[in-house]
DNA sequence: GTCTATAGCGCGATAGAC
DNA sequence: GTCTATCGCGCTATAGAC
């Protein structure tokens, strides 16, 4: 009935946009392509989102929200070791499950700008994330290590070379690299 | 003399393009902006380069050439340990010296495409680079580790957070992270 | 509230005069 | 070697049909 159809358009649009973004990149995807895939006109797309940037932000938002949840959960752990383990597990799992989108995050300035904006809106978010990894003591090596880890895992996880790997294998492999960098022994059985 | 002026235009154009690219990104830099900065018209720019992609490729080329030299030098080392040390030192040094451009490499699809193209043109190049790090034995963990390392160092080295660091400090810190991932003890005095 | 039709402006790119 | 003129297309914007 109409309910199904009506509230669907915006959601369908985001789904279609995500698919096209991962196929052609953000800049390689025109509003016309999105409109055509939905069977509507450009102006109809423009009715739901004021700008193209607003679309990219809406596409990226759920994953960023999820990441915020992971950081909060990690901070709630009692020991520093448990905090690092929790963040590592959660971050790797997030990257693996959303490989295609994460690859976009790290290689497309369209999405990158959206992420920057969202991260800056809750100003303290990035600091909170890094703080879990580097601890309250701001050591230079620790900061750079954390950045190498986060960027490396995100990019390697989204790279075409690891695309053939199944989720479980990729997750375990990335986790192994992360644990090594942080001197955390394997915890799984 | 006219010689100074004549052969200068193409070089000046590349320098100006690089500056504008690092300021506004590749996609954020129009041919009009480049032309205006040089005091000529768009069409004049087109005389020197057939397409915008050709400009980005020419901007990226010197650094890629340098990286090829580093890989070749590394492969010429006698022991695997020396090969890894050489590549690590060379790669980190390259990233640090060309921070701004490397940041573009890893965050802008315009440059990324140019790099892809150049890397694919000498098809074996990327394989040769990875082979130095993973050895002749293709182990899954080693491959992912190498990717995390290369991507992490490149992105962390170009990130705004480390911009205030001087070259020497950044180089030593990135090297430390790399050595840790590869179980290589510090070699410097 | 949802969409179509239409137009403005800037972009990369090309053709051809000087 | 540099210019003017022009093209097609992409994002944005508005007016108005349903």
UniProtKB/TrEMBL annotation, chains A, B:
Family annotation (Pfam families): TetR_N (PF00440)
UniProt keyword annotation of Transcription regulation present: yes
Family annotation (InterPro entries): DNA-bd_HTH_TetR-type_CS, Homeodomain-like_sf, HTH-type_TetR-like_transc_reg, HTH_TetR
Superkingdom of source: Bacteria
UniProt KW keywords: DNA-binding, Transcription, Transcription regulation
Name listed for the protein in its UniProt record: TetR family transcriptional regulator
Keyword Signal among record annotations: no
Family annotation (Gene3D superfamilies): Tetracycline Repressor, domain 2
DNA-binding region residue numbers: 30-49
Organism name: Amycolatopsis coloradensis
Domain HTH tetR-type stretches: 7-67
GO MF annotations in UniProt: DNA-binding transcription factor activity; transcription cis-regulatory region binding
């Amino acid at each position: 009935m109409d309910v199904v159809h009506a509230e669907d358009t915006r959601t369908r649009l985001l789904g279609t946009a995500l698919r096209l973004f991962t196929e052609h990149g953000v800049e390689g995807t025109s509003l016309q392509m999105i409109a055509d895939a939905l069977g509507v006109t450009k102006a109809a797309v423009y009715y739901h989102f004021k700008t193209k940037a607003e679309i990219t932000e809406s596409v990226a938002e759920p994953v960023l929200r999820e990441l915020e949840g992971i950081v909060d959960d990690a901070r709630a752990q009692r020991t520093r070791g448990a905090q690092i383990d929790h963040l590592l597990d959660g971050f790797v799992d997030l990257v693996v499950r959303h490989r295609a989108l994460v690859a976009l995050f790290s290689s497309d300035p369209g999405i990158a700008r959206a992420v920057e904006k969202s991260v800056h809106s809750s100003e303290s978010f990035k600091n909170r994330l890094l703080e879990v990894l580097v601890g309250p003591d701001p050591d230079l090596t620790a900061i750079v290590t954390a950045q190498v880890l986060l960027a490396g895992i995100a990019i390697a996880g989204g790279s075409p070379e690891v695309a053939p790997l199944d989720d479980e294998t990729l997750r375990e492999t990335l986790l192994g690299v992360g644990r090594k960098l942080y001197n955390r022994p394997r915890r799984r059985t």
